[in-house]
Amino acid sequence: MLLRDSLPEVKTELPGPKAKALIARRTEAMPPAIRCVYPIAISRGEGAMVEDLDGNIFLDWVGGVGVLNIGYSHPEVVKAVQDQTARYFHGMVNIVTHEGYVALAEKINAIAPVKELKRKTMFTNSGAEAVENAVKIARGAAKRPNIIVFSGAFHGRTLLTGAMTSKKAYYHGLGPLPDGIYRAEFPYLYRAPKGFTREEAVDYYVNRFLAVFEESSPPEDVAAVVVEPVQGEGGFVPAPREWVQAIRQICDRHGILIIADEVQTGFCRSGRWFVSDYWTEWGCAPDIIALAKSIAGGIPLGAVCAGASIADKVPPGVIGGTYGGNALACAAALKIIEIMEREKLDRRSGEIAEKLCSAFTAWQGDFRAIGDVRGIGCMMGLEFVRDEKKTPWPELVSEIVQDSVRRGLIVESAGVYGNVLRFLSPLVISDAQLDRGLEILKAAIAASIKKLS
Question: What is the mean pLDDT of residues 281-299?
Fold first, then answer.
């Protein structure tokens, strides 16, 4: 049986002897700040499955933290990259024009739902670089200095995106951080003020956004608002439709651009190609989209797509980079988009989401610790709490993660309080693998609650 068709099977203690040896070498060779909580040393991966050095097989519901929507080692993507290596590895786009960069830019321009119909795209090496260049494009076009970001946000670990990221544990002791970044409160409806209806909660968060103009920066100095349509590290918290529409109206009134950080949400994860496709239907498409992760299936690549009138205002030399739009990455991305379109992975994402939502919602009746089930498409999160006061229970989530991996399922935590489990499985997961993963996760939740109660 091919690995991609397998089910989880743990044959040794974790880590096994070969994995343990490599992890020991890692400890000696790498900074401890680059952490890994999983006792796994990968040997190979196919589809949604991973085999470690000791022959243990795991179902991966993390997918490189959203990188592997297409799965591990898709044979057509492997061949596309191999074919490109025979021609050339790299062509620096400031020196030579290469077909892959142009063709991929044309494709992103066609599918990325930014507000302006005429679009232009540039490429970077990562999501953080994409967000950083999106900010540079916005500032260059608007000729304004300031940016508004949100509580719970994660945009990267560079100096600028580190300032934009809410959780300052990522930058403890590493200041000073860049100026011109101001923070509003993200609409976290599950933790809205007690007793608020949905409408009252949305109004509350809109007013908290408006307060930034009074307390931090006048609107005429704000170039852009940068928002994750579904917060990733922040706990898989989706931005409500009514709030997005209100922010779009406010930004239009003041000439402020909206940057959608779709690094984690993009490429069919949400049941659409991008969450911004939903925004477009709601009449509030973003002006700029930052993309990365699943765009190239694991080869480093990020992208920024902006309306042409915005992109054309950026001064020469301000954006770009040596490796952005690398030929191998572009070849992978073009093939991945072709496969996603042909296999309708946006539709498959919706099918997975329907099964997940049904199971997770039913589990709320079994486990009082599950306080909230939320997300868009199959970018879903489970928030765990100790009591009716919604006290976060991160220790439980840590135990669930470890119990799950011992049973053959890789899952990951998230959230401001570390009390959310997130679902980022490859979209090529089979129904049998999905069912098995749900069985494992439910058993891990039950065992972990029993252990900690």
Answer: 97
